[in-house]
């Protein structure tokens, strides 16, 4: 009974679950399973699915994102009261990062069925907003990875791909004039460096500058 009360108090400090009624919290707590992870163990792995929400009771974990070359960037360090796994449960997509225990860590795990019973009805505005917020968080994780692990050319390439829109012929185009200054602010580099990178991409025929200042992103850049 004491453990149940402690768990309910913990849920009160979890933003995702704090809005539940006392009855709902009690029901959720009964459906949760406690699990212990030793130092170095993986709770969830990037690009894989694990259908559970984890609420940390003790210990500490780190959230790490790895690029295609195997380089890592630490996105966050989480402790008691924090939670992981909610993004994948909401949008049914693989995890955007790997989570590993920095020390012995105990968690409460809530399965997908119980978690979804606490969500707004599918088709509601609140449900749509949740999906939109998760999408933004995933994009933020990708941006952090790019800024931390990519060189300026890699960051500019990513920015161009994000800004471009595919036309009826299947080409990726940025129709309006591309501001070097705006790209520089987006990728965290100087305007001069961005200009040099764009010149290099043009010389490699990876982009085509248009008379109005827009550009075409070539297929080779998409595959690079």
TrEMBL record:
Residues 16-136 form the Cyclic nucleotide-binding domain. One of its GO terms (molecular function) is DNA binding. Signal peptide: none annotated. It comes from the Bacteria. Keywords: DNA-binding, Transcription, Transcription regulation. InterPro entries: cNMP-bd_dom, cNMP-bd_dom_sf, Env_Response_Regulators, HTH_CRP, RmlC-like_jellyroll, WH-like_DNA-bd_sf, WH_DNA-bd_sf. This is Crp/Fnr family transcriptional regulator. It comes from Comamonas serinivorans.
